[in-house]
Amino acid sequence: MKKLEDYVISIPDFPKPGIIFRDITGILEDADGLKLAIDSLQKELEGLDFDVIAGTESRGFIFGMPLAYNLHKPFVPIRKKGKLPREVVRQSYDLEYGSATIEMHKDALKPGQKVVLVDDLIATGGTIEAAAKLVEQLGGEVVKMLFVMELAGLKGRERLSRYDISSAIVYEGK
């Protein structure tokens, strides 16, 4: 039986020399890989008390939606700036070369709700940290951060040490 790692396509020297890009489309393009990814993430939620699953655009949607569906939980999208139609809260954060802003509907959470954040990858942790700040701004509590892959060499887990983090695959490098 294949492991989840077997479905990830590693592309050397992309986007620049010395970097190994970990491509999740190999997981998505194979029914067994996709099932294994969702099952692996869902296993991390067993016994966890939570109310809502929230995912960051766009790959957090891909992995968060099936979890929400399977577990009969609502799903809250966290989107790039300017994509949501109602009143929003927003959070800016730094990227390697610049900054970005994400938003969530202001009425997406009720104070006290327990939230699981989902994304495909934790690298430096900037995006998911901004997502956690949005949840907390609305009075929610982040009870779990869930990722398909983790690039441990970029130390995102350390940056987010106050949160409960699970990754289905951990790569030691960058």
TrEMBL record:
Q: Which GO terms describe its cellular component?
A: cytoplasm
Q: Which EC number(s) does UniProt give? A: 2.4.2.7
The Phosphoribosyltransferase domain is annotated at 47-160
Please state the pathway this protein functions in, per its UniProt record: Purine metabolism; AMP biosynthesis via salvage pathway; AMP from adenine: step 1/1
Name the top EC class: transferase
SUPFAM superfamilies in the cross-refs = PRTase-like
According to the UniProt entry, its GO molecular function terms are: adenine binding; adenine phosphoribosyltransferase activity; AMP binding
Protein family (similarity comment):
Belongs to the purine/pyrimidine phosphoribosyltransferase family.
Can you say what this protein is called? Adenine phosphoribosyltransferase
* The organism of origin for this protein: Bilifractor porci
